[in-house]
Amino acid sequence: IPSELGPLPAWFVPGARSPWVITVHGLGTTREHPLTMLEFLHHHKFPVLDLAYRGDPGAPRSPDGLGHLGETEWRDMDAALGYAVRQGAQRIILYGWSTGATMALHTAARSPLRDRIAGLVLDSPVLDGEATLRALAAARRTPRPLLPFVVRATQGRWGRTAERVAPVIAPDAVKVPTLLLHGPDDTLAPWEPSLRLADRLPTLVSLHTVRNAPHGALWNVDPQGYEEALRRFLLPLT
Question: In angstroms, how far is the first alpha carbon of the chain from the final one?
Fold first, then answer.
């Protein structure tokens, strides 16, 4: 996929339906992660474009060599959106996990091609950057009194501040049907912001809750319920 930083690796699996689905992984994974859902999407005849983005194996590095929790990486999802349109896609569903879900929100709010986006699927979205940075620091067994300092240092390393995430989850950023897949046991991305988003936009946003599920692994805990929620959301969009 041509992008502002150079070519991005991607897999494409054709399908007979419209719209296309663009899948994007999140924290600590690679483009292999969305393959979990490829059988389901292929069975339902969706064309799928599975993207690697800046910093991934085989993809260009970010200019500063850092990650930005989706705030700059969304441009690579936007590049995939442009590629899909050039290949004839009339409508596109963005499907992201973790920071990939945050990238989808940025793209839906900021892309020049956002009118082509038919829907969003957001699995374990990172909607509170500071909370996620704290969780990552805690996972490295940082002593609790040092957490605020580590969070500030990590914000500098990631080249961002937590406050800059806020516009992405503002209600006016979501203008298309959206499926939120999240759960209360996510220790990296708190689900409370997902609850608030679904509560503020009940006509656009549906929340499917999976309990006892780690971050980004909801399908693994309840594949049947997860796929049924996805089926009910996706098929009316075709």
Answer: 25
